[in-house]
Amino acid sequence: MWPVIGQPKAVSLLEQSLERKNVAHAYLIVGPCHVGKMTLALSLAQALNCLSGKPPCGECPTCRRIAGGSFSDVGVVGLAKASSDDSRAKTEISIEQVRELQHLASLAPFEGRCRVFIIDQAERLSLEAANCLLKTIEEPPAGVLFVLLTSCEEALPATVVSRCQRLEMRPLAAGEIENALREKNIEPERAKLLSRLSRGLVGWAFSAVSDDSLVVGQLEMRDRVMSLSGGGLLPRLDYAAELAGLFGRDRRKANEVLGIWRDWWRDLMLVKLGLGNAVTSVDRTVELDEMAAGLSLEEIRKFIGDIEMAEAALGQNASPRLALEVLALNIPEGRNG
Ligand SMILES: [Zn+2]
């Protein structure tokens, strides 16, 4: 049993290649952060080394050790694993890290059948590291598999992408995550809220079960987005400046905030269309109803378009402050505050 929730396409492709003993030398798993790329990569490593007749069983000593990160033939390389004598935050996976991998890859498996090297955030490979890796994935030693994970395929050299078998992981439907949470005995109300807030990212939903700060943080950001509509212009400009600052420091986080904007306004559209059961903000249905009543469908649709334009502008390195100010000033006022 693959411990992967959803993703039937990626899983069945891997199952078929295992059955036909036709596993690629290198896979590239593409998908947003927290969608479950590492889980899929580790499951593949388990499937290749599992001791049971039904790989990956998840139960045998090998499967357990791979899941626990203590199996010597399965290695994970990424920014976090960079050398500890350098206190600066790593921004690249270095050529030294790749050379070390190549050395390990040249050795026979130590205790398993197949050595698996997982490269997390592969888009962070420095150009020389990527070129160096290229040679190994073109002609890999026998019994060695590379699995590259990325949320930003465009940032990888095309030469690397073309040498890998590509597996795409997509966000799941809220209902799938809700069911998975309920199977783990999470109470129905909480499972519903977490699944909606997760935006289809199963890893986020399961982290949020044990880390309430994730939920609180997300709800606070959402409530600020909600309150901006009723506020004056100055709070909006302050907010835009703050978000532009965040964008400068942490692009991913700022994009996440814009995702919260999109969800809130999508919720308003759903309410307007009479599809209130499908909203993300299941804890704010009263506010959604009130706000939707003061807006026309046209206004809501137009503003969703504005959010998408702002996201596109930020993606193209436009001035973040200007793009976000325009967005904040465009929020429709509504007729009943
Ligand atoms: Zn097993």
Structural notes for this entry:
- The protein has 337 residues and is an alpha/beta fold.
- The chain folds into two domains: 8-168, Rossmann fold, CATH 3.40.50; 211-329, Up-down Bundle (Zinc Finger, Delta Prime, domain 3).
- The chain is built from 15 helices and five strands.
- The protein has helices spanning 8-19, 37-49, 61-68, 95-105, 127-138, 158-163, 174-183, 188-197, 202-210, 212-228, 233-249, 251-272, 285-293, 297-315, 320-329; strands at residues 26-30, 74-77, 115-119, 144-150, 165-168.
- It has a five-stranded parallel β-sheet, with helices on both faces.
- The radius of gyration is 23 Å and the shape is globular.
- The model has no long low-confidence stretch (mean pLDDT 91).
- Zinc ion is lined by residues 46, 50-52, 55-57, 59-60, 62-63.
- Residues 46, 50-52, 55-57, 59-60, 62-63 line the site of zinc ion.
Sequence stretches where pLDDT stays below 50 over 5 or more residues? none
Largest sheet: 5 strands, parallel
Average pLDDT level = 91
CATH fold descriptor of the largest domain: Rossmann fold
The CATH class of the largest domain, by name, is Alpha Beta
What characteristic shape results from the CA principal axes? Answer: globular
Order of helix and strand elements from N to C terminus? HEHHEHEHEHEHHHHHHHHH
Amino-to-carboxy terminus distance: 52 Å
- According to CATH, the homologous superfamily of the largest domain is P-loop containing nucleotide triphosphate hydrolases
Helical proportion, percent range: 40-55%
Structural class: alpha/beta
Number of helices: 15
Count of individual beta strands: 5
In the residues, how many domains can be counted?
2
Proper CATH architecture of the largest domain: 3-Layer(aba) Sandwich
Instruction: Give the names of the bound compounds.
Output: zinc ion
Q: Order the strands across the largest sheet as they lie in space.
A: 2-3-4-1-5
Beta-strand content: 5-15%
Question: What is the CA-based Rg, rounded?
Answer: 23 Å
